[in-house]
Each structure stands twice: as C-alpha cells, then as structure tokens.
Amino acid sequence: MESVLTVESRLVEVLAAARRRSRVRTQQYEQLWEALSRMALGGKMIRPRLLIDAHEDLGGTAAQAAMDAAGAMQLLHIGLIIHDDVIDNDTVRRGEMNITGQFSSEAMLLGATSAAAQTWGISSSLLAGDLMLNEAQSLLARLELDAPRRLAVLDIYDETIAESVAGEQSDVWLSLHLDEADSGDVLTMIGCKTAAYSFEAPLAIAAVLAGSDASLVERLRAIGRRIGIVYQLRDDVLGVFGDEQETGKSVLGDLREGKETLLINTARAHPAWSQVAHLFGDRGLDAEGGLRLRQAIEESGARAYVESMIAEHCKTIAGLIAEAELPQALAGRLADLTSACSLRCA
C-alpha cells in the first residue's frame, strides 16, 4: 500500500504542474485538466503497483525512475479508458459521469443544443485522452537513466500503444460481425487491447529498469500477456453473470453493446443462440431479454468453456513462472496475481 500512496503523491505533483500550465490558456482547457486529475487518482492502481513491486523484487535500485514509470502506466491507463468510453458511447465511469458526460451536461446547462453538447463532450474526451498519452510518454522520456535503458523503456511504450490501438480496433471490428471470427481472433484481440498495457508493459519496464537481460524481459512479457488474458476473460464473465452490487457494472451492458467476447463467440455455434441472436446488441435490451441471453449462453456450454480456458491459462502461467527462474518474491507475487485475476468477483 505504501508504494501506491507514493505513486499517487507523485501523480499529484505531475498533474498539479499540468494544471498550473493550463491556466495560461483557456478556462475550458483548465477545466479539462481538473477533470483528468480527478480521474487519474484513486482506483486499484494495479499497473503502477505491479511495476514498482516487480522492480523491487528484481533487485532494481532505480527507485525514482520506477516511480515515474509507474505513474506513466497509470496515465496511459486513463488515456486509453477515456478513448474506450468514446468508442463505446459511454457517459459514465465508476458510477460517475465521465468527461463526455460531464462536459456535455455542463454545455446543455449553458444553453447548448443536445447535439452540440454531445459533440463538445466527445471532443473534450478525445483531447483529454490524447493529453494523458502524451503526459505518460513525457514522463518516460525524462527518466533519469542511461540512454540505452531509457530508449528501451520508450520502445516498450511505443509498442504498447500500437498493440492497444490494434486491439481496440479489432474489438470494434469483431462487434460488427462482418466475418466469421474464431476463439483465436478473440484471444488475440484481448491480448492486444487489455493484456499488453495492463500487465505486459509494467513487467517489461520493471525488468528494464532493474537492468535485467533481454531474455528475462521477454519471459516476463509472456507471463504478463497470459495474466492479462485471464483478467479479461474473468471480466467478460462478470460482465454478463456478475453480481451488479459487487462489480458496479450492469449485466446488460456488454449484451446491449453487442460485445464479441469469448462467451458470445462460443455461444454462437450452438442452436440455442439462433433463438436469441436478435436480442444481442439491442440497445433497448431489458432484464427479461438479458435473462434469455444468459440462459442461451449457459445452455451452449460457453460459460463452462470460458471457465476451462481461464483454468488452462492459469496452468500455463504457472509453468511459465517456474521456467523463468524468477526471484522467489516475484514468482510468488505473479502466482498470487494470477489467482486474484482468475477468482475476482468485481
């Protein structure tokens, strides 16, 4: 917990400096940074914590660089989820209005039409996401490290952005249902969209900062990729079958959106799906329709299949950890993280 609080303290400094710089521009630009500051702080801080802890477990001594890199991972996360909300047409995040919702509502209160206010909100979100991605890269570019390590960290960041964008685009494409996607397509999308920046990049950057050799960096990337897939597969199950009181997320959201998860991809092959296919992706889907879809998914065996995939990936991760010859503390930490991702209920 101490490392998380320290990262938050560092982010407070970084964001406060950005807000001070914003004051020489427009009032709206300053408001954008204020909204970003609220979004960037708090939460589980999974990515920053993973980077700092892995760096320490690997015997790293670049404490300040690790702290700044951890902060960059949090800013990267914020930038990507802001853009993701725009793509998904969401106006709420963590039970509160996101930047699109906030700026749209304020514009309407000031007299803007609904359409104009929506354009303002979406535009503000897109620009806010850009600012976060730029601020994250700026932190990494200023790390007080020797040039080879700093450039290696920036290369990881560049590749992570490319992976995340490819994964996000693939997610949207799969949801159009214009061609026949298989489970491999879905798993590849998950690996790019979620795993690359959430687990793979923090572990790889931690190893680079600690001075680990290239082979260990690659082994940690492989482990991080698999952990991220487990995390997202569990998230997809919770998105349809979870307890809304625990997850804080509607079990109708993914079904209304028509999100092509491994659950849905598997259910499509079963005769039961044809009876409910017209409900999937219906923005007006009600509780009864959601129940019918969940029953069809269960009947198809899709939920059981995804659970088996989670278990299979966990087994593979255990093998990768054993083969990687990691420090005992890090091996235990990654095993615990894998278990937490596979068993979480929120």
Automatic annotation (TrEMBL):
Molecular function GO labels: (2E,6E)-farnesyl diphosphate synthase activity; dimethylallyltranstransferase activity; geranylgeranyl diphosphate synthase activity
Q: What is its EC number?
A: 2.5.1.1, 2.5.1.10, 2.5.1.29
Tell me the SUPFAM superfamilies matching this sequence.
Terpenoid synthases
Q: Name one Pfam family in it.
A: polyprenyl_synt
Cofactor(s) listed = Mg(2+)
| EC main group | transferase
Family that this chain belongs to? Belongs to the FPP/GGPP synthase family.
Domain of life of the native organism: Bacteria
Q: Which UniProt keywords apply?
A: Magnesium, Metal-binding, Transferase
This protein is called Geranylgeranyl diphosphate synthase type II
